[in-house]
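Same chain as my last thread, 93 residues:
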Amino acid sequence: MQAAYHYYIPSPSHWPIVGSVALFFMGFGAAFLMKDVGAGPWMLSIGLAILAWMLFGWFGTVARESETGKYTEQVDVSFRWSMSWFIFSEVMF
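reply #2:
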C-alpha cells in the first residue's frame, strides 16, 4: 500500500495587501515630493519602511515554511524548475 502524497499549499497571506499599502505611500510620496508638497518625503519614507517590513516578513515566512519541513521533494523540484524557466525566459528576452 502506497502512502498518500502530500503537496504543500500555503495558506492565504496578508503580505500582498501590506505591499499594496507600501506602494500606495511610495507612489503618493514620490508624486508629492516632485510637486514640493511637505508630506512627500514623509510619505515616501513610510512607504519604504513598510516595503522593507513586508520583504523581511514575507521572505521570513517562506524560509520558516521551508525549514520546518512543509515542502516535499516535489515542491522543491517545482521551485527549481520554475526558477530555471524564469531565467531561461529572461535570457531569451
